[in-house]
Input
Amino acid sequence: MAERKKQMSRDKISRLVNWGHWFAFFNGFLAMLIGSRYIRSVGWPDSTLEWGYLTISTIGHFTFLAFLVYLVFIFPVTLVLPYSKILRGFTAFVASLGLYALLFDTLIYDDYGIHLSPFAFDLAWQDLSSLLHSTSYISVPLAILVLELTAANYIWKRIDKIQKKQWGNKVVIFVGVCFFASHLIHIWADATQVDKITRYDDVYPLSYPATAKSFMAKSGIQNEDDNSQPRLHANSQLTYPITPMQCSAPSDANNVLMVVVDSLRADMITDKTMPFLTQYQQKNTLFTQHYTGGNQYLTGMFSLLYGIQTSYIDRIEFRLTEPVLTQVLAQQNYQRQLFTSDENLQLLSQSAIASQFAVSSHSDKRGSAQVDASITEDFNQWQASQAQPWFALVNYSSPRDYDTPAGFLGIETIAPPMPLKSAEKVLFNQYRQSLFFIDQQLEQLLKNVDPQTTVIITGTHGQVFTSNSREIRRDFSPANVKVPLIVHEAGRTAKEINYRTSHYGLAPTLMSHMFNCTNPVTDYSSGRTLFQPGHDEWVYIGNSRVFAIYQAKEATVLDRHGNYQIYNLDFTKQLEKKMSAPELIQVMREGRRLYNN
Output
């Protein structure tokens, strides 16, 4: 008798487990339907390859998530409380919560471009009125709960018939094939850089597709630690500019010389270190509170020429989409010339920044200081031969490498004005030597430039005195993000501008002042014109993986996982401070604005 009761109990649990498997599969199907909202956010596939990969990836991923929820939350309860009525109600409730979370995640992803996390939840909680802007947030959850209860009862009543048809093994094999096939295809796509596949890497929550790097690292073929190239994402809805540009340059338009010095700190321009530039800025317009858009070379250049938030730099469309500024220069028949090093030119090739320029570049094997000297000579020769309006972008880089030419007679060393370690003091004074050298190059560069030429001098980013590249990439202190900005414009008197400006304002300034573009600045930029006093609540600095938001009285450094740290403007950690959600919400939306028009 006891044995019979045990057998009946085992049969009952077996029936409940079978029911749970089919109910989980049903919820995997519902999750796929809700998950289609993610694809709508990034743009529907436009090729058979994309549709095929996305189909098997969706089936494998969401079915796997549904079974994971079953194993963690339902299966243990089945063993402890094997009562069908209780289990059906409990399971329907858990499944409803899971689908609610998924649905809420689609809202957050559509609005902010990130998935649900403690950081994202905190952000969304303070923006609920915008996210939940209709009564559907009441009716949809109720409808899901009713559907789950109905499905739970329906499947329970027919579980015996379903089992007799022996579909279970076929379904498991089909889902397993989809799951593993999607990962194998992604390994191939990652190895061969098929962007049509890898564009969907971050679309689904809790999605970690296998990559060629991880596969080869496990096979002992390749080191997994190679993160030198950014992960690119694509979105077919990009509109940049939002409306066609309406510009008309005057017949006597000025030439433009933009000098961008890699690693140029704003606080290092002194009469001893850079005497020429110190005098030059006193005679022209000096922006004393100017910020770059990135703490690395490429992000700094991207913010300067595109004028849009540097979170867009990871989007694959910008490999082919030139800055609006250079598009307009081409339309106005400006000669466009870039003077740089081979190393920097290779970095610029990751986007379309340089695609509208003729290029004069030099090999870095001779040292960056020698390259900079050659750039000065090249520009002077090129300028003398120009017969029509021109735009020249001169890019010096020796301060980044602390480099000076052999035999260079520099300036005396001094005690650093900030606390530094012994090795850092050496780098500080060597940095001053390279700035003194660049100051001489600037003097040689500008001595033959016509006074009517508009001249812009700035830096890609600042400099921190360390040789640790990872430390530099994650440093968003003022030393690394505040750069000088000096503008010479014919007819404009010398002036200091003390309100905050950023690289995002350079393109709008040139477009509106020189080329009479009538478009709203928001059509093509995240900034505003430099000569327009504003009340910008924040400046975005970095990329989509780690970035800083500089606000009026503090700076918040975040990474893509939602980890953040708040500093005051002297960059001292504020341990008890919580993030300011309104500005961060604006940041997230600005980073997707060009995809939502």
